[in-house]
Amino acid sequence: MTRIARIVALGLLIHVKHLSRNAFDVMATTIWPLVYATLAYFMFRAGSQPEALLLASLGATVMGIWSITTVGAADAIQRQRWAGVLELLVAAPTPFWAVLLPITIATSTIGIYALVSTLLWGRFLFGIPLHLEQPVIFVLAIPPTIVSIGLLGFVMASVVVRFRAGWAVGNMFEYPVWLVTGLLVPVALLPGWAEPISWLLAPTWGMRALRDAAFTGGAPLFDIAMCVVLSVAYTVIGAVLLGQFLQSARRRATLSLT
Amino acid sequence: MSTLRVALVGGAISFRGLFGWLHPAIFVPTLIVPPIFQVLFFAYLGRAAGLESDTFYVVGNSIQLAALPGLFAMSHAINGERRSQTLAPLLASPASRVALFLGRSLPVMAIGLLVSAVSFSFGVLLLDVELPTRALPTLALAMLAATFSCTALGIAHAAVGLRVREMAVFSNLVFAVLLVFCGVNVPLGDLPSWMSGAAEGLPVTHAVQAGREVVAGSSFLSVAHLLVIELAIGAAYLAAGLVLLRLFERDARRRATIELF
Amino acid sequence: MSRESRTLGAVNVVEAVDLHRTYRVTTGAIRRRTHDLEAVRGVSFAIREGELFGLIGPNGAGKTTTIKMLITLLIPTSGSATVLGHDVVKDARWIRERIGYVFGGERGLYERLSALDNLRYFAELYAVDHRRQRARIDELLSLVGLKGREQERVEGYSRGMRQRLHIARGLLHDPPVLFLDEPTIGVDPVGARELRALIASLTEAGKTVLLTTHYMFEADSLCDRIAVIAKGEIVAQGTPQELKAGVAAGSVVEVEVFGIDQPSVERVLALDGVRAAVVEEHEQRQLLIVQTAPGLELTHAILSQLNGTAVGRVSSREPTLEDAYVQLVTAA
How does pLDDT run across A158-215, given as a tens digit for each residue? Predict the structure, then answer.
């Protein structure tokens, strides 16, 4: 058990380091949230309160975190393949889910750059005040948000592992998840069947946690708890799916290792 | 005639070679689903902001989306040649460069038109769009014009991109600029003047204007000038792109830096 | 030299029994056709403790597939294999803790990270006791000669350095069995020589090694025994001496030629007493290598078949392992 904890922790450190040194990933994760924050600013500006703009800023940030996760996590295995490292990871005596999981969380952790840059962008370019009601809880809400979103990426990676072009599937889920989880568009505006789906997705609760900590009203601790609950559920689902696939892949040679 | 052949046949072959996107497993998740959702997303965002109508966003975004293949596919085509190191031999060949690159751009334009049409259709199906059937032919022309100018911008930006290391970031930036500046999701009047000013020199802006006006009831004749401006902008970017390519080629020959390609 | 003086264990550390592996191959994007491809068709061999065993064969012969079965990445379609007495299918995790896998080439490392970071990561993945990790990494860096350069990013490493880092990585958990897949490929001659010395020292230390290589002189000098695999089957097995003896009854005529054509080669092959004829390409010239049956003087006959081709030096020599390999593989 402690070995698993150690490999996850070390894996996270190593992969965050590795991803941070890729200029493209870092830039991609910061540009688009800024674009959406800018658009939201212009669109909401007519007669809006500053709070709506801060909310839009936060929404754009979580959109960025989801963006990099959905494509990056879906692509995680392919990237290991490109580096020529996939065989070594699969052949290790460590269960593969424990190897893949920190890679997907590392992907969403890069979203920290999006968080910082989007909030600063809003503050300095559009004068959106960074007034947070409960700053401590806000900061505490960041890790569970990032981890739970990363783990949703882990589930995605576990499903997409059999394809070489996993990133394409990941790409496909960018907009739909933004919409359904109410990051910029309130879920209330969507058809009724969207709401239950939103409850199952981590970005919904991560967004709520950040929002409830930034403004009055709402229950940020409950939102954080939901992030944790979903994290556990995603871990189990992903591990089971992955284990099943790998076992079958050994037999049918369906995991291209190189 | 052989110039035409170079254009058509060369275009088709390079397309298959470099455009693995022909496979539905990649084509659908990148060029069909995301555009539809971009239209939906901004329409809903508009509703949340209480700004304009569904029609505004559906017309704007579906026309802007012609830039998706226009930028990414074109840069993939040109940079793909660079990566597989066929660009130098290509430029060294006696075939007309104009014919070569126009040939490569034809399939890209076809996809651009497809993306616009599909995303528009789904927008109409799923949202509240007021669409007089009279407007359809002119709207189609507006999409065609935007497809041409976006593909031309694609060639120009791909030529610039030959000197840039991370092409994908650059393409993303250009796409983002079109999304923000050109009155696609924010009326031009609500944008800072430097943005709307810049938009006058960019593709998409005039085609979107024409599209919206004609859907609102204007006649073809009253928007024809906008379409002409759109085409002219496209022609300017095309010329710029071809000049740049020739310049880089000459530069590479002079400095013996074929590695540039 | 040291090979003869080492006593090999009595235990079979790696045992492959009639291994088969079939792949289902699908072709075509729109009209998909599947057919079965049998990559490995009944491979059997056994490696004793402390042995350096070579597996040689052309590309596509089934070497990589065989190794992948032994290192538990693929399950055999039929047949069985054991490593250290444990079944590769049922005891995969147990085996993975006790084998090292090293392959040649540029890839297989995180480029933007330092060698040290790479080793730390793999040490944890391969279950090295965390209390021993730092000491072990240090020890290995010295062993492979990378001490002092471990903080540099791998992207700046030369091919030879990467190979040495690969070996260090493979040894992190001190496995008793090592699988080395073309470890010296693309490495400069000096670096390759050092790597070979390193590999030889591994068996001195009691490890069992399975080596695949394209360099025959490497297999000849390093391996205790060799299996030649072609088209999924083992065509010969034995010590380098034994394999050479299979060809040794005979000799090799080497003719330097300039621009030989296929019909000429065919004519030479058709001569009585010629067992094999291959053309080796060199920069300005080619070398026609003809293996002949014993007791025959065929130089004149060979040369007369080369009418019209410019001919340079002609020599006659004893067959090497490479000749044995060529003969075995072309006959398959």
Answer: 988 877 777 788 888 999 999 999 999 989 999 999 999 999 999 999 999 999 999 8
Identify which of A14, A22, A250 has the shortest CB distance to residue C117.
A14
| Its pTM surpasses 0.90 | no
First to last CA, chain B: 29
A179 near B CB under 8 A? yes
The secondary structure element, H or E, covering residue A47 is none
Residues of chain A neighbouring B190 (CB-CB closer than 8 A) = 42, 45-46
Q: Scanning the structure block, which residue is given the tokens 């005040």?
A: A129
Interchain contact A10–C (C-beta under 8 A) = yes
ipTM over 0.85? The verdict is yes
Sequence-separated (6 or more) residues with CB below 8 Å from residue A220: A134, A137, A138, A141, A208, A209, A212, A213
Segment B48-75 shows an average pLDDT of: 91
The verdict on A116 touching C (C-beta cutoff 8 Å) is: no
| Predicted confidence (pLDDT) per residue in A89-113, tens digit | 999 999 999 999 999 999 999 888 8
Q: Is B170 touching A (CB cutoff 8 A)?
A: no
Residue with tokens 């380098």: C240
The answer to whether the Cβ–Cβ distance between C130 and A6 falls below 8 Å is yes
Instruction: Indicate if the pLDDT at residue A225 is higher than 80.
Output: yes
Q: What are phi and psi of C19, to 5 degrees?
A: -70, 135
The structure tokens 């993306």 sit at B115
C-beta separation of C251 from C316 below 8 A: yes
Contact A4, A34 (CB under 8 A): no
